[in-house]
Structures are given as structure tokens and as C-alpha cells.
């Protein structure tokens, strides 16, 4: 990627705001992701392997474009094209992105609270909702977790909080400590320590995902807890599944940042790429604590 800004002297930040030239990457990435969506839709509709080919093709194109795009941004940063104003823009953008993610999870937490504290009591005839109770489901009871009237989707059990969910909580809390140690090591210019702490964080993220995959398998096969298990199953898998997707994305980001550190990128006084990923990872940690309390414990 090139810039419209005037070239800066070696070792000094640019005097003008960096504006990259127009790029085709967003359009190609959009096409790749759209192909993935079409492939998933076709596969779910027809359950045939050839229909799944667009998924792999679209995913391959998307991954390639993402890495090419990230490589371009990394080179721009390492070549000194970003000044303090650009750094501030990146910080503001990352802050707004995390805020949007907070609102995203807030909506699902709100749905969980509404179902548990309002809808279920109303349908059971609590307060002034007796007419609704008698007209719709006379036998409905105010029980949580709930699988609907007469357990239409079969009996299920919940995942115990003090098994794998607690282990996953310890893993993520520990990863928050390791990435903080990596940040301090980077600011003190201890690159080897930074890299080791970062790989430890990556390992903890991967361990979390492995534990969650095992938990899902146990929920489906051993507890009969599925996405179709009433409002509880829907909210359980929606919240934990989206969080798992965020952990996956965060782990990929950690791997990229660690590889950049191994390539000599980032300086003790200039490393927002590292900081942005650290912000995101701490956000993932905090969301999981909320999930652990409100989904598993309560």
C-alpha cells in the first residue's frame, strides 16, 4: 500500500495524516465471505458435499485477503507512515469496536434476563397475566431452566458450573495475566519474555476452545441439551457460542501479533497493534465472567 502523504525523513514520523491508496481488498473479501454464506445455506438445505465446496473456496479467499491486508497494514506501521493522529484514530476505532461488542453481548444478556425474569413468570400466570396463562398454556409452570410446556423437546440437564466452565474461567483469567505480563515485558524491551508470555496466552486460548468443544459434545450427547432445548438451550448456545467465536478470533489475533513480535515488529514506545489485541482479549475475559455467573452459576 502506498500513501498520498509526503514522504517523511528517515526515523521521523510523517507530518501529514496517512491516507492509503484505494484498495480492492474490501471488495474481494466481501465476495469471499458472501460465497461462504451461500455455501453454508446450500449445505444446510441439501446436505450434500459438492454444495459445501463454496464454503471452502470462500473461506480460502477470505483468509488469503485478510493476511494480505494485515501484511500491508503491518508494513505501513513498520515503515513509519503513521503519526500520532493516526495512532489516535486507531485507538478510537478499537474503543468503538469493543463498545459495539459490549452492546452485542448486552442484547443477548438482556434476552436471557427477559426470558427468565419476565416471560416465564408471565406465561405461568404470575401477577396480572392469569388470562394469558389460561388461554395459552394452562399447565405451564414457572421453572428455570425451562424447555417449554410439557418439555416438548425432551428432558435435558444443564452443564454444571464447577466442572469445565470453572476450568475455562481459570484458563481465561490466567490468560489475562499472561498477556499483561507480555505487555509489561514489551514496554521494558524484553522481547524474548514478551514472545514467551504471548505464546502462553495463545496456548491458554486454544485450551479454552478445546474444553468448550468437549463441553458442547457432552451437552448434546450426554445431557440432551441442544439449541432446540427451549429458551434455555437457545440462550445458552447463543451466548456461549458467540463468545467461543470471539475467543477463536482473539486467538488468531494473538498468533498474528506473536508472529510479528518474532519478526521484530513493535517498539517499547509504539505498539498499538499489540495493545489493541490486548484490549480485545481483556474484553473477552470480562464477558466470560458474566457468562459464567449468569448462565452457569445462577
From TrEMBL:
Q: Which family does it belong to?
A: Belongs to the cytochrome c oxidase subunit 3 family.
Cellular compartment(s): Cell membrane; Membrane
Organism of origin is Panacagrimonas perspica
Q: Does the keyword Translocase apply?
A: yes
Q: Which InterPro entries match?
A: Cyt_c/ubiquinol_Oxase_su3 (IPR024791), Cyt_c_oxase_su3_dom (IPR033945), Cyt_c_oxidase-like_su3 (IPR000298), Cyt_c_oxidase_su3-like_sf (IPR035973), Cyt_c_oxidase_su3_a-hlx (IPR013833)
A family per Pfam: COX3
Q: What is this protein called?
A: cytochrome-c oxidase
Cellular component aspect of the GO annotation:
plasma membrane
Topology versus the membrane:
Multi-pass membrane protein
